Amino acid sequence: MRLDGVDLPKPITFDLEEEDAGNLPKSQLSFMCDAEHGSVMAKTFIEQYYQIFDSDDRSPLLQAYHDTAHFSIMCHIGSSDSHSMFSNFIADNRNLLRFDNSGKRLKQLKIGKHSIVGALKSFTGTEHDPTTFVVDLVFFTPALIQLIVSGLFREKVKPTSGSAFKYFSRTFIIVPVGAGFCIVNEELCLHYPTSAQMKQMTSKPKPPVSAMPAPGPSAIAPPVVNGDHSDILAKQQMVTDLAAKSGMNLIWSEKCLNETNWNLEQALFAFMQLREAGTIPMEAFQK
């Protein structure tokens, strides 16, 4: 086998019997380390974050970042690519393989939520295609969350050369703050898409971010970021209050509030009736 005129080494294979090879786990498009609870948070975060990121005003993303958060962007420029293909992002490029100067590396690192959102606002407008998203929830604990999102987007302002389509991979480090979450560290990697990826983007209309398929079981979790922040905080407080008074977990508390049109008194009354009838499942109290 040859590639670009060069003989390739023999492929690396596994010394397995045919019956053993059939028992290997199947590959997954997305990975959830905690599908029961983490997928809810991941879906909510992604929907709300990219709805704002793709809007005309990215200022509300200030609510999503911690005061001391760190952010960097890396443009992967291949041998057949040029800097002009990433002209809308290259000014903030922090590819450590390209910079030996420690001062330059530090300058390209965005520290603090105002510096980060300022950089995000300087980027060209974007349109992400959520149907191309691959979501990996690598780590999920009450104290720390690591979420990786990759997929395709289109630049609203075409770069100096090449296609407006880009492949991205974003790694978020998230911590709980109050009733929501904050990003404390983020790395954005941009790549020029393959011909198959560009064909995928040009052959179909862009769906809304809210149409993104859930990476796991459907449920409701406290929102992460949203334009109507005061309404979110009020609802989160109601969920917390109902959970404390009823003993139910947050997911079932929010379900109860949804079914009673977010009336806390009616939700408590409904809870007591259902508890007396013995119709509340045990999973509602598992935390």
From TrEMBL:
Pfam families in alphabetical order: NXF_NTF2 (PF22602), TAP_C (PF03943)
GO annotation, biological process: poly(A)+ mRNA export from nucleus
MF GO annotations: RNA binding
Keywords associated with the record: Leucine-rich repeat, mRNA transport, Nucleus, Repeat, Transport
Keyword field contains Nucleus: yes
SMART domains to which the protein is assigned, alphabetical: TAP_C
Name of the protein in question: Nuclear RNA export factor 1
Organism listed in the record: Lygus hesperus (Western plant bug)
Underlying gene: sbr
